[in-house]
Amino acid sequence: MKTEYQDDAEYPKSLDNNDPLGHFRQRFFLKKNYIYMCGNSLGLATKDAEECVLEVMEQWKNEGIKIWTVDDNKYYLYSKYLSKLMAPIVGADADEICIFGGTTINIHQGISTFFKPTKDKYKILVDDLNFPTDRYAVDSQVRLHGYEPKDAVKVVKSNGKFMDEDEIINAMTDDVAMVFLPTVYYRTAQVLDMVKITKAAKERGILIGWDLCHGVGAIEINLKEVDADFAIWCTYKYLNGGPGSSAALYINRRYHTRLPGLAGWYGNKIETQFLLRQEFDHQQDANGWQIGTPNVLSMASLEGALRVINEAGIPNMRKKSLHITGYLMFLIEKKLSDYGFTVGNLREDSKRGGHVCLEHDEGYRISIALKSRGIAPDFRDPNVIRLTPTALYTSYEEVYKMVEILLDIVKTESYKAISKNRNYVV
Question: Which residue blocks in 186-237 are alpha helix, DSSP H?
Fold first, then answer.
């Protein structure tokens, strides 16, 4: 059923007054006269995160080395603690998840664990639209196995913007050992059918891993249903874990007896860890894939953020996200289409993630103009302004105000005063 939106200034106020998630705005640090539309890149800080970080600081100040034993070893076993909070967000069991490291090292961990090339089955299947760090890791892993990426990395071509799922499946030939793909594409917000693609890979005897970075916290994910071999995701986007907060790795329980590709002392069994033996005694659940000591301060901010996410509920957040991004797309078409703006993402609810891709030939300079007007978007080449009205802290009225500011920017052509030279971070 198509939602009937309205384009007047009073309509968003009525939506905000009846928003069942509206009260969660109070749990975030929001700046006055500042509209934040960049939660797809870095989520805002929660007051719960601050509380958890300050608690860790107090424990560190007061306990020193004994911080590892307070609260029944909470911080020593922090990954186990946080995995229980993460499990309902991704639809997995807590012991299939570990929280450690960062996105790229977790990709390396996953691929090095599962990529076992043979003479006839030695290729990793990827696409040409994924975020570059995924490809860098894949290329590195095939080199470590003695192959050149041009020979062992099979790239499924896009149509320039979107991927065709059937073409991905058709590319799963007998020489493919592994598939590694994103759930949601960072530039276009396209959502792939994880169940369909994973099923096809398994039918062909191919291992498959997923990058959930742009999906977790924005769409509903059920790793039990998907039944992939492994998955990785960051926690600082829609999960609001904080800049560079510890990432996550999912290892399907059927592989818990397998040795990790990259072993480290924190993957050793808890019972024998401090016996400090020279032989690795593998912890046979996902925490056995940890490498080093937990990054407690960054994990503390994640703890607070996950509390908020679970309280709100991913299904409720997805419902709000689809509605508020639908409202944004409606306003773009109604008010901005005569000024060279188009919506560059797919429209079907099942095919789009949590951000809207606003396209314009002058996208870069317009994005800078937005920043000068108190709005935080980001820009991706060649012409995409990514806008993310997030479910928990963006109001409908903010969406309306942002579109009005965009309209003023293009009507007055104020963006033309901005240099075309790029900043390092856009």
Answer: 194-203, 223-226
- Tell me the C-alpha distance between 291 and 79, whole Å: 12
d(CA 399, CA 329): 10
Domain spans, the chain = 11-30+314-417, 50-311
Q: Comparing C-alpha atoms, which of 184, 140, 135, 145 is closest to residue 162?
A: 184
Is residue 29 a contact partner of residue 44, using CB atoms and an 8 Å limit? yes
Task: Summarize pLDDT for 131-182 with one digit per residue, the tens.
Answer: 999 999 999 999 999 999 999 999 999 998 999 999 999 999 999 999 999 9
For the segment 3-37, what is each residue's pLDDT rounded down to a tens digit?
899 999 999 999 999 999 999 999 999 999 999 99
Q: What DSSP designation does 129 have?
A: S
In the CATH scheme, what is the homologous superfamily, with its name and number, of domain 11-30+314-417?
Answer: Aspartate Aminotransferase, domain 1 (3.90.1150.10)
Give pLDDT tens digits for 333-381.
Answer: 999 999 999 999 999 999 999 999 999 999 999 999 999 999 999 999 9
pTM (2 decimals)?
0.96
Residue 370 CB partners (closer than 8 Å, separation 6+): 376, 377, 385, 402, 405, 406, 409
Is residue 75 within 8 Å of residue 296, measured between CB atoms? yes
Asked if residues 178 and 347 have their Cβ atoms less than 8 Å apart, the reply is no
CA distance linking residue 274 with residue 281, whole number of Å: 11
Q: Are the C-beta atoms of residues 212 and 232 closer than 8 Å to each other?
A: yes
* Euclidean distance between the first and the last CA atom of the chain, given in angstroms as a whole number: 37
Q: Are 188 and 160 in contact (CB under 8 A)?
A: no
**C-beta of residue 217 within 8 angstroms of C-beta of residue 42:** no
CATH architecture, domain 50-311? 3-Layer(aba) Sandwich (3.40)
